[in-house]
């Protein structure tokens, strides 16, 4: 096995030997002051499980947990709980060296057993949640000692895919792994003080945190606002210091009003999610009609103030699977949509026997759902909007209790098969489509991408095949990329760290 130096990493995306980040701080961090940081959020969190990488959990994950490795905003891997890692020449294994002197919030020492327990949970289709699909490449794992872990793969794996796996794994305290949904069990910079469901979440600085001089702010309070306008008003009045994950439209207005706005490198793609096990959506031709029922330009303009890109595939432009030609092939075209609906053979009553689930707490979701409702009305399909608020909507979304709804997906700038970490695109244990997966061609296409470790032609063919299968099966209809995790802050705030996934990182933030 070979160990690669930082210089060898370069632009090739290779693994590197670790360099400690314990003292790494933003340039102004030494000048920043602590205190209480008040953050407005627009969604109630689902739970404390770091393997549920849902947008509603984005504000807490990196504050309660640490990853094995981190990415810089440019996608460069850096050490975290793993101080170094070595990828075997045959790309069939990776060996990690773990950081010493780290403890979980419970006081349990961070050792190899916690990584093994986290891997075990991630590989379980019932418990692995968003991590389960990423674990599909893993054969087994072992720990020769408390500071070393080796992960073996089923076949040679592209190096970027290995790094993505390490970045996605956030070790969980083995003692708390069975109760992690309700009780945090991480090593992160903050610990839980109190949660008032639907109202607020209070965290305090971890006094034994391993990163030197972090976190800066000692008290971290998240307040849940039911409306974007209310959160913005709280920032303008000084009631909060930051609005996290508000709307693009509000961010533009607040920036013009003099507030700081930070957009990270990890966009989401908005997807019209279809439950293909229900009603008329069991019919493929009917689903395919929605490829042409999406007025993507209007959705981007009205829902996201034009900030983003129109897309017909679930990739950001930075993804190696991105193919802009699909935007033209599957453009908004009501005549094509009507022909596909006619070809479905469904009756007039069947095609309108469903409701569109809408996140009533999110102004963008309401607006874009109304655009789709209008397009359907134009071709004679009246559809009712099923408005649900806050936790009620999240429960329906993650439980698959809908016929169709808009819901964003992440990991769209990383290795393409990472799309399967999102609930609608999971290949197994899919909470919407259930098991056995109703779209075996999609499952096979994801497996083909994972296995394509050969030349450029083989890799491109695997990506092309996945794209064709996605639009053919049409259980998810992408519309646009957009900035998620936007941070709008008062001018008193400094030390903002941008995360590759746009998760909220509070440990470097302080007051000027």
UniProtKB/TrEMBL annotation:
Domain of life: Bacteria
Extent of the signal sequence: 1-29
Cellular localization per UniProt: Periplasm
Alphabetized SUPFAM superfamilies for the sequence: Periplasmic binding protein-like II
Keywords: Signal, Transport
InterPro entries in alphabetical order: SBP_5, SBP_5_dom, TAT_signal
Residue ranges of every copy of the Solute-binding protein family domain listed in the record: 76-412
A Pfam family the protein falls into: SBP_bac_5
Stated family: Belongs to the bacterial solute-binding protein 5 family.
Protein name in the entry: Peptide/nickel transport system substrate-binding protein/glutathione transport system substrate-binding protein
